[in-house]
Request: fold
Amino acid sequence: MTRRISRRRLLQACGMIVPAALAGPFLLGARPADAQQKATKQQVQYQETPKKGQDCEKCLQFTPPDGCKLVGGKINPKGWCLLFALKPK
Ligand code: SF4
Reply:
């Protein structure tokens, strides 16, 4: 049996979602890089291969050629992680 976990839940567990009162100063003037740190590959169970037809190339968070808005480090377009979100067509 597969257990699904929402992205919000995962980010909360990783400490990446903070209350608005704490995030306020960052939202008012800090650069994006200061306001949000990326998750590590380990935190999101990143793997270098697709999973069940899902891969980074099809993910909303993928930034070609080898980046990700949410996960740090070099990302393989054929990789996958728990934060996968299908790009709208
Ligand atoms: S599946 Fe999406 S969120 Fe996860 S590493 Fe790939 S591009 Fe980033």
Remarks:
- Confidence is low (pLDDT under 50) at residues 21-27.
